[in-house]
Amino acid sequence: MNTNTITNPIAKAAIDALQNGDGKAWSAAFAANATFYDDGNKRDLDAFNKSAIGHERFTSIDKVEKNGTAIYGNFHSDQWGDFKTYFRFTIDDGKITKLEIGQATH
After folding, report:
1. How far apart are CA 5 and CA 86, in angstroms?
2. How many Å apart are CA 42 and CA 58, to the nearest integer?
3. Pairwise CA distance, residues 105 & 58, whole Å
4. Where does the chain have alpha helices with state H?
5. Greatest CA separation found in the chain?
6. DSSP character for 29?
7. pTM higher than 0.85
8. Quick one: CA torsion of 41, 47, 53, 57, rounded to 10 degrees?
9. Which of 27, 55, 82, 87 has the highest CB neighbour count under 10 A?
10. Rounded to whole angstroms, what are the CA distances from 38 to 32, 78, 93, 100, 101?
11. What are the pLDDT digits (tens) for 33-52?
């Protein structure tokens, strides 16, 4: 799947790592104290990383907004099935400091 519509290089690197199941590259994109929210609820980023990497991925990217840091598309999770989702990244000093994900209606 083509991720070239993601114009922010840090967000693109993170999504490419997710798509490739590359936990090392995914984790390298995040600041040590990064926060994670799933449908508005604060969650443990490390737990998400362990369960998602290699088991979850975008099947299409339908829309990219906010200078390439908000990605919307169809998503597949081995555990939860297929659904529309968003990933919104907050980036400071070259690292992701906040990741918000959730079901989308785009």
Report:
1. 14
2. 22
3. 15
4. 9-20, 23-28, 45-52
5. 35
6. T
7. yes
8. -20
9. 87
10. 19, 17, 23, 6, 5
11. 999 999 999 999 999 999 99
